[in-house]
Amino acid sequence: MSKVNQNFLMELLKTPSPSSMEMEIQKKWMNYVKDFADEIRTDNAGNAIGILNPEAPFKILLAGHCDEIALVVNRIDESGYLHFDKMGGINPKAAVGMMVTVLGYSKTVTGVIGVNAQHHGGLKNDFGLEDLFIDCGYKSKEEAVQDIQIGDLCVYKTEPEILMDRYVAGRGLDNRTGAFIVAEVLKRLSETDINVGVYAASTVNEETNLGGAYFAAAGIEPTMAIACDVTFATDYPGVNKDKYGDITLEGGPVLAKGAPINIKINKLLEQAAKKLNMDVQYELTPRMTGTDADKMRLTGKGVPVSLVSLPLRYMHSPVETASLDDIEEEIELMVTMIADMTGKESLNPLED
Question: What is the pLDDT of residues 343-352, one digit of tens each?
Answer without folding.
Answer: 999 999 999 8
